Amino acid sequence: MASVNKVILVGNCGRDPEIRYLPSGQPVASVSIATSSRRKDRATGETVEDTQWHRVTFYDRLAEIAGEYLKKGRPVYVEGRLKYGKYTGQDGIERNTVDIIATELQLLGSREAGGAAPEDGAATARPTAARPPAAARPAPATPAPAASGFEDMDDDIPF
User: Fold this and answer.
1) Using one digit for the tens of pLDDT, what is the confidence trace for 20-70?
2) CATH code of 96's domain
3) What would the pLDDT profile of 65-95 be if each residue is shown by its tens digit?
4) Most CB atoms within 10 A, among 18, 62, 127, 142?
C-alpha cells in the first residue's frame, strides 16, 4: 500500500536562516516558520488568533537559496515532509521533535516588502530541476492570421 507524507506551509519566517555545513560539505539551512489561524470564541465573541511554529530544514541548493533570500518576517510557501525524532535534553528528559524537510520553496509577497528577489527564476526553487531564465524559454507559437479571414471556415455549416 502506498503512503503519503506531505506538508504544505504558507507562513512568515520567524528568524533569519541558520546555515551550516555537514562534514561532506553539504549545506543545511534551518528556519522557523509561523502559521496563524483565526477563530471566533463562542463564549466571548472575540477573535482568537492561534500561531503555530514549525521548524523547517533545507538541504543542498535549496539551503543556499533559503540562506540568500529568506529573511525574518518574509512570507514564504514551503512543501516538504515530516520527520520525527527524539533527543535527550541537558536535564536528562527525553523529548520528541517534529521537523519539516523542505523539498520546494517559493518566496511570496512583493520584492520591495522582502528585499530583492532572484532574477533568474530561483524565487520558485526545486532542488531537482532548475527553471531556465525567462529569456531562455521559447515563446509559444501563434498562428499567422489568414489573409481575408474566411479561408479556415468550414463549408458544411448547416444554416
Assistant:
1) 999 999 999 999 999 999 988 888 888 988 999 999 999 999 999 999 999
2) 2.40.50.140
3) 999 999 999 999 999 999 999 989 899 999 9
4) 62
Q: Which domain holds residue 97?
A: 7-125
Is there a domain that residue 30 lies in?
A: yes
The answer to the question of residue 135 being in a domain is no
CB 84 within 8 A of CB 96: yes
Residues 6+ apart with CB under 8 A from 126: 62, 103, 104
Task: Give the count of domains, the chain.
Answer: 1
Q: Is the residue at 2 inside a domain?
A: no
At 51, give phi and psi (nearest 5°): -105, 130
**Three-state secondary-structure class, residue 42:** coil
Look at residue 158 and tell me if it is in a domain: no
Give the CA diameter of the chain.
87
Supply φ then ψ for residue 87, to 5 degrees.
-150, 160
